[in-house]
């Protein structure tokens, strides 16, 4: 699958005409993430396990700020 042909989605909470968000798409073993205002720009590929862990944390209200080291 190429990035251009991916089925990109953004949150329904972003509202009509609001491009101030990220879009995500399935990319094989990864979840692809891009800026909705720069669709031709860089794309992050995040492993599915890492993505699922991030989503679980966000849904549970967990936030983290700081140095990973």
Automatic annotation (TrEMBL):
- Where would I find the DUF397 domain in this sequence? 6-59
Note the superkingdom of the native organism.
Bacteria
Q: Where is the composition biased (Basic and acidic residues)?
A: 1-10
Instruction: Tell me which InterPro entries the record gives.
Output: DUF397 (IPR007278)
User: What is the designated name of this protein?
Assistant: DUF397 domain-containing protein
Q: Which organism is it from?
A: Micromonospora craterilacus
Which Pfam family is one of this chain's hits? DUF397
Q: Give the span(s) annotated as Disordered.
A: 1-20
């Amino acid at each position: 699958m190429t990035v251009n042909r991916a089925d990109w989605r953004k949150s329904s909470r972003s509202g009509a005409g609001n491009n101030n968000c990220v879009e995500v798409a399935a990319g094989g073993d990864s979840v692809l993430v891009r800026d909705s205002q720069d669709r031709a720009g860089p794309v992050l590929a995040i492993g599915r396990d890492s993505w699922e862990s991030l989503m679980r944390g966000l849904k549970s209200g967990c936030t983290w700020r700081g140095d990973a080291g």
